[in-house]
Amino acid sequence: MTSSTSSKAQQHLISEMYLQHHDWLLQWLRHRIKHPLNAADIVQDTFLRLLQAQQKITALQEPRAYLLNIAKHLLIDQHRRYTIEKNYMEALCEQLQLDEQDSQQSRFEDVIQILDFLTVALSTTHSTARQSFLMYYFEGYTQTEIAENLQLSLRTIQGYLADCLSLCYETRHRLNAELNDE
């Protein structure tokens, strides 16, 4: 028997096995798998493996047992893949949560650093000037609202804000110079 004749005989046998055992294998898998679409996929993959097999299947005594064995191996492979994907997704979610916590911690540390800087920079100013600065830059008040609230002139508030900004600039410049000297 030539290889082309042998190949045709093998394909014919697989075709016969498909017609005879497809529905049975599908039903068997549907009873064991949660999702019916997965059962249909595994049946198709089973016959695909059968087509790709290099061994001769003409001498099979128990075709159902052989198909069942292939299907079971595919189920095991699918479960392993699912477990790996699930573990990977859980690890990824955990890493994202850690990254978010690190990011929040970093932002918190930045805020603390800014507040420390402002405490140093504005330590020599009058309390009303500090209050004006905080109201304008952190609480969102307008200069006019601050002047009305503190019962001071708009010009005084503008002077306080300019003085505070100047102190912040000088302090930043001094701190940068100290860092560069180290």
From TrEMBL:
Keywords: Sigma factor, Transcription, Transcription regulation. InterPro entries: RNA_pol_sigma-70-like, RNA_pol_sigma-70_dom, RNA_pol_sigma70_r2, RNA_pol_sigma70_r4_t2, RNA_pol_sigma_r2, RNA_pol_sigma_r3/r4-like, WH-like_DNA-bd_sf. Residues 129-161 form the RNA polymerase sigma factor 70 region 4 type domain. SUPFAM superfamilies: Sigma2 domain of RNA polymerase sigma factors (SSF88946), Sigma3 and sigma4 domains of RNA polymerase sigma factors (SSF88659). GO terms for biological process: DNA-templated transcription initiation. GO terms for molecular function: DNA binding; sigma factor activity. Pfam families: Sigma70_r2, Sigma70_r4_2. It comes from the Bacteria. Gene3D superfamilies: 1.10.1740.10, Winged helix-like DNA-binding domain superfamily/Winged helix DNA-binding domain (1.10.10.10). Residues 17-81 form the RNA polymerase sigma-70 region domain. Belongs to the sigma-70 factor family. ECF subfamily. This is RNA polymerase subunit sigma. The lineage of its organism: Bacteria, Pseudomonadati, Pseudomonadota, Gammaproteobacteria, Moraxellales.
